[in-house]
Amino acid sequence: MTTRLTQQFAFLQEIDKLKGILRATAINDGSRPENSGEHSWHIAMYAMVLADQAGSEVDITRVIKMLLIHDIVEIDAGDAPIHSQFDTADQDAKEQRAADRIFNLLPEDQSKEFRALWDEFEAAITPDAIFGKAIDRVQPLLLNLANDGSSWKQYDVRLAQIDSRIGEKVNKGAPWVWAYIREKIKPWFAARGLD
């Protein structure tokens, strides 16, 4: 048991580093960037609150687990903002190495479980992962709307980019949520001639 606890606490101490990974999106009041630890907690809450928007085949408990661990790899790989330019293959390789290292800090049974959940989320083909990916994309939209589009301005984002890079995923996993959110963000882009 001592070895198991040592491994579990090593993992828990390591993931504290997620709080130091800054994201492109600012928090609601625009005063500072959100960190990845805050993001993971916030979207887990989104999933819990929006569970009624998931399909009947979605297991919200599994989705919450996925959302809590999905960005842990950013400790080693860093955040790759969706509207930035980066080498996708290189980022994927960094994230795979990070997943190997970080999840292997855990005892073998938990390492396998967490890694399987992370891989499932990344593949986004199961109902749980599809809904989780949708929720992961929703929260930054609302943060941007609340803080006058801070990262949209930074990356010169147009509504068409939102539709193609985000909307398709959200619509696939939570169509009513996407319809609602799109109506909320559309005026921001229209007012700036970015629609």
TrEMBL record:
<dbReference type="InterPro" id="IPR006674">
    <property type="entry name" value="HD_domain"/>
</dbReference>
<keyword id="KW-0378">Hydrolase</keyword>
<dbReference type="GO" id="GO:0016787">
    <property type="term" value="F:hydrolase activity"/>
</dbReference>
<dbReference type="Pfam" id="PF13023">
    <property type="entry name" value="HD_3"/>
</dbReference>
<feature type="domain" description="HD">
    <location>
        <begin position="15"/>
        <end position="178"/>
    </location>
</feature>
<dbReference type="InterPro" id="IPR039356">
    <property type="entry name" value="YfbR/HDDC2"/>
</dbReference>
<protein>
    <submittedName>
        <fullName>HD domain-containing protein</fullName>
        <ecNumber>3.1.-.-</ecNumber>
    </submittedName>
</protein>
<keyword id="KW-0479">Metal-binding</keyword>
